[in-house]
Structures are given as structure tokens and as C-alpha cells.
Amino acid sequence: MGPLFRKISSHVSVPEIVLIAAVAEANRVIGDGKKLPWHLPEDLARFKRLTRGHPLLMGRRTFQSIVHQFGGPLPERRHLVLTREGPPADFPDIEAAASIDEALALASGAERLFVGGGANVYEAFLTEPFLGRVDRLELTLVEGRYEGDTFFPEWRPLVGPVFEKTAETPKDGFRFVTYRRVAQGA
């Protein structure tokens, strides 16, 4: 499985990096405007259970959609928002980062960092130079094709050379799937 912390220098510990998303399996939709295209209470409960107590990195539009949908930041999480505009005035506790490297520096010392979107943030983490830093994908794969305007990057070609499926829990109309980084030299 690998260590939770990876040293990138003698002074900095890098957290385990986990991408978490609910994805329409047929067409990779993850959003429609400022909302999710489905309502899956079990998925929301899993998201809460996994991310609670850990930093959660997201783009500005994803943060705005969370505020729109839930009335504010998610409780019991440290929010790191990728934006060049600084922290939102209404939410001074939100930590703003102008780049992924800056966000990773803010999260250094944490046990685990969850990446919660949106599409551009996921894309950045599933391509170099950041792909090599991702330890795990926690996906909720929703059956069917959904209308939407935001898409998860194509991750399936990475299964095998980069990630291996280590857990799958079928549900009614969706399934929880965990992919972990393939051990080097395996």
C-alpha cells in the first residue's frame, strides 16, 4: 500500500493523495451546472465518512457549488481552494492556493489530502507531473448516462499500469470502487 507520508525533502511530509468523485459510468459526467446530476444519500455519507477530518482540495467553482448546494463549506474539513482571487470574503477560514504546488505545501504534514474536483483539478492530478503523486482513487460509479456539463477525465487507461482495483462494493444503481497505486517493482 505504501506509506501515508512521502518525503519530498528532509523537511516536508507529503500526505497520501486521494481523488474522490461520483462519476456517471457511461459518459463520465460529474456535474450539471452547480449541482450533482443525481441524489445518492449513500454516496454523500461515504464522502463525509472518508473526508471528515482531512484537508479537501477543490477548484473555486466546485467550492462555489458546495456553498450553493449546502449553504456553506462542509463541516469538519479543512478547505483548500485553488483560486487566484484569494479566500472568499464570506468564508475567511478557507485557505486559498494559486497553484497545486501551493495547495500541496499547505497540506504538508496532513495524513491524507482528498481532491474533490472539479474537472480541471481532476485532470491535473491524472496527468504528469501530478499523476505520480496520486495514491488512490475513491470513485462512486453511477450506472447510466447523465446530462451534464462537467466530466471526469478518462481514468480507465490508467487501470493496470498505474492503478489497480482493490475494492468494489455494489449498490442499487451504483458501486463504490477503490483503485490504489500499483506498487513499484510489483
**Mean pLDDT over the residues:** 91
> What characterizes the major β-sheet?
8 strands, mixed
Helix content: 10-25%
* CATH level 4 superfamily: Dihydrofolate Reductase, subunit A
What's the CATH class label?
Alpha Beta
Note poorly predicted spans: 1-11
Element order: H for helix, E for strand: EEEEHEHEEHEHEEEE
Give the number of helices: 4
Give me the count of strands: 12
Shape: globular
What CATH architecture do you see?
3-Layer(aba) Sandwich
Concise overview:
This protein is α/β, with parallel strands linked by helices.
What does this structure look like?
It is built from 4 helices and 12 strands; from the N terminus they run ββββαβαββαβαββββ. Helix content is 20%, strand content 32%. It is globular. Strand 11 and strand 12 form a beta hairpin. The strands form 3 sheets. An 8-stranded mixed β-sheet has the order 7-6-5-8-3-9-12-11, with helices on both faces. A two-stranded antiparallel ribbon has the order 1-2. The protein has 186 residues and is an alpha/beta fold. It has a single domain (6-181), classed as Dihydrofolate Reductase, subunit A (3-Layer(aba) Sandwich), CATH 3.40.430.10.
Key structural traits:
single chain, 186 residues, alpha/beta, Dihydrofolate Reductase, subunit A, 4 helices, 12 strands, disordered N terminus
